[in-house]
């Protein structure tokens, strides 16, 4: 039996997907990383906020330029970063940037959990084209993501209200690898409930880096 050589078109498509995946990761995580780097370099929260606003705007532009679209979740998070960042600059307060994490994750938690309680699966509407699972599996996955977003919102409020700014910035950056780990832990569940179990490609879990 001879091994089939992948068609050039398939190879190009796979390479393009890998390229856009790296760009999407940079879009999702670039702004908070740039913000933290600016803060710990200058110890100036206001200057770091300027960096956050600029990086968030750039991320949205780059994401659209590469994929010719901006996914709803990164778009929502990016716009919120711009809105709360600008408010922080206008009022010279760090509260707006800090509370943005609570607002975004809290809103997503309410959206996900509320959808499940009304017998819907909002995550399916956002990711249905990429993953094919039963409605029951979608509701379970949606509830898990809703629980994660609720945890992130509550944890952010606890840290914001009880810790100093350097500690909060470290916590904010710590949420990024935590989001990646959480998403990866959902991969076995997704693989188990995919409509095509013979498909050996590992599905990409929804992003939770907010």
UniProtKB/TrEMBL annotation:
InterPro entries per UniProt: YciB
Key words, A-Z: Cell inner membrane, Cell membrane, Membrane, Transmembrane, Transmembrane helix
Membrane topology category: Multi-pass membrane protein
Acetylation as UniProt keyword: no
Transmembrane segments: 21-41, 47-66, 73-91, 103-121, 171-191
Keyword check for Cell membrane: yes
Compartments reported by the entry: Cell inner membrane
Record's function text: Plays a role in cell envelope biogenesis, maintenance of cell envelope integrity and membrane homeostasis.
Membership in a protein family: Belongs to the YciB family.
Annotated HAMAP family: YciB
The protein, known as: Inner membrane-spanning protein YciB
Organism (species): Caulobacter hibisci
Gene: yciB
């Amino acid at each position: 039996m001879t091994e089939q050589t992948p068609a050039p078109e398939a190879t190009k498509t796979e390479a393009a997907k890998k390229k856009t995946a790296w760009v999407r990761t940079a879009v999702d995580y670039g702004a908070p990383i740039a913000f933290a780097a600016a803060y710990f370099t200058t110890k100036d929260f206001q200057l770091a906020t300027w960096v956050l606003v600029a990086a968030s705007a750039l991320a949205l532009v780059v994401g659209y330029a590469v994929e010719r679209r901006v996914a709803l979740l990164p778009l929502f998070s990016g716009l919120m970063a711009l809105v709360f960042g600008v408010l922080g600059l206008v009022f010279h307060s760090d509260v707006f940037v800090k509370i943005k994490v609570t607002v975004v994750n809290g809103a997503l938690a309410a959206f996900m959990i509320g959808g499940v309680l009304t017998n819907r699966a909002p995550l399916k509407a956002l990711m249905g084209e990429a993953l094919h699972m039963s409605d029951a599996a979608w509701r379970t996955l949606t509830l898990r993501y809703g629980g994660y977003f609720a945890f992130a919102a509550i944890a952010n409020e606890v840290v914001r209200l009880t810790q100093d700014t350097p500690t909060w910035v470290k916590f904010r950056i710590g949420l990024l690898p935590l989001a990646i780990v959480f998403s990866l832990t959902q991969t076995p569940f997704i693989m188990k409930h995919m409509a095509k179990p013979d498909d050996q490609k590992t599905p990409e879990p929804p992003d939770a880096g907010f």
